[in-house]
Amino acid sequence: MADVCCVFIWKPDLACSSWWVPSPSWDMAEAQVWALPEEELTDLFTNLEKDGDRRVSFEESQFGLFSHMITFFQGMSTPLKEPRLSVLHERLSRSTEEQMSPAELPAALDNTLVVPRTGLQHAAITSYGYKLQCLRIQVRQIALERDKARLDLEKAETWCLQLGRELEEQYIALKHTQSKLKDVQAEIEAKELLLQQAVNHQVKLEADTRFLQGKEASLQGKLNHAMKESTQLQNRVTEMAEKLAASEKLVLELQKELNHVVKDKLCQVEPHSPDLPNQNERFAEIVLEYERQCQVLWDQNGMLWRELERLRLQLRESRAERGLPAGEMSLSMEQLQEQLRDLKVQLETKTNYYEQEIELMRRNFERERKISEEGFKAEMRKMEDQKRELEETVAKYWAVIDSLEEQKCVWSLELEERFEMEQARVGQQHTKDIYYLGQQLDQEGEELRTQCRDRESLRSGTVLFLSWRTRRGKKGPGRQSGTAA
């Protein structure tokens, strides 16, 4: 209000560059304008919109504005005259069919007030236009802030969409990793199955080894028993052969000795000796004794031969029981022992080979299992870290989104409040400017009427003066002639 008063004081179009001092009636009108309640102004500009399209027409603005101005101006000492109000109403009614927003209302009112005016009116309209320009700048700044908030919100939404895409990619990678982990687990299960089969095979081989070892021990026992029996039989055969040879040798020696004795006795005996019969009898007895001993020896040799044949038959039967073919009866015990050693070596070789294979498989499986477990643990740690980072990022993004939503709501409320406040202030200022303009127009009209009356009175006085002088001039020559007469 102080700015408006400062602008209204100076009159640049007057010939005399003087300052104008407000009158008491001006101060009273200003006080009445400032005493206008803010609620009435707010109700005025909120009730301008009647059809709900957030746009007001000139008829609505005129009706609301001037109905309020009539009640406002009724308490003033210098009310707005009806002719001026009707003229302003007529000018504002030229575009009643056009619809406009509350932001366009000041410009429309400014355009309708473009009439020939004095310097004071021009200064008031200039000040009012400057204030409107400031308000437009403020509205433009508010719009820029709103656009910036909208851009920030769009950036946040784009960021959220990008985050959603990243989350989808991470989810796909997690699914792929889980499928890989399932494949690794299936491979581990297959390897565990192979290991179980290898362990079962090892157990079977160990059972076969124990069975073969038991069979080997049994065969070794049988072989030892057979070798012992064979050795005993061979010893008995050898012993019997030796006895037989000794018996035959003894028989031959006895035969030779008998022959020598007989020859010696025959040589010593005289043919005609009286003891010859006795000697012959004695020799016959000796011969019989020797023959009896020879018979006994021959019987013993026969028994020994029969025993030898029986032992050979037992040896043949024992070899046949051991599964030896008839053509291999002559194999020696060294060959049997060599075959047994070969079998032992083959069994040990196969056992060692299978044990080495099983141990190698176990080591490979343990190494692969450790590698798989380490890879699985590393992958799980990586996925847990990524999941934790994603959760933190999502939480941050949601916090940013919430803060942006709150800021958006706050900014929207602030913008609405500021817009309503500016709208109310502009309406109030516009009402004040219209009031001041109407009052100024009334004052200028009064001044013009006063000047007209003064001019009329001056003109009438001048006319009277001229007529008086004319009448006086006409009377003057008559008087002069009378005087002269």
Automatic annotation (TrEMBL):
<keyword id="KW-0175">Coiled coil</keyword>
<protein>
    <submittedName>
        <fullName>Ninein-like protein isoform x1</fullName>
    </submittedName>
</protein>
<keyword id="KW-0963">Cytoplasm</keyword>
<dbReference type="GO" id="GO:0034454">
    <property type="term" value="P:microtubule anchoring at centrosome"/>
</dbReference>
<feature type="coiled-coil region">
    <location>
        <begin position="326"/>
        <end position="396"/>
    </location>
</feature>
<feature type="coiled-coil region">
    <location>
        <begin position="174"/>
        <end position="257"/>
    </location>
</feature>
<dbReference type="GO" id="GO:0005813">
    <property type="term" value="C:centrosome"/>
</dbReference>
<keyword id="KW-0206">Cytoskeleton</keyword>
<keyword id="KW-0597">Phosphoprotein</keyword>
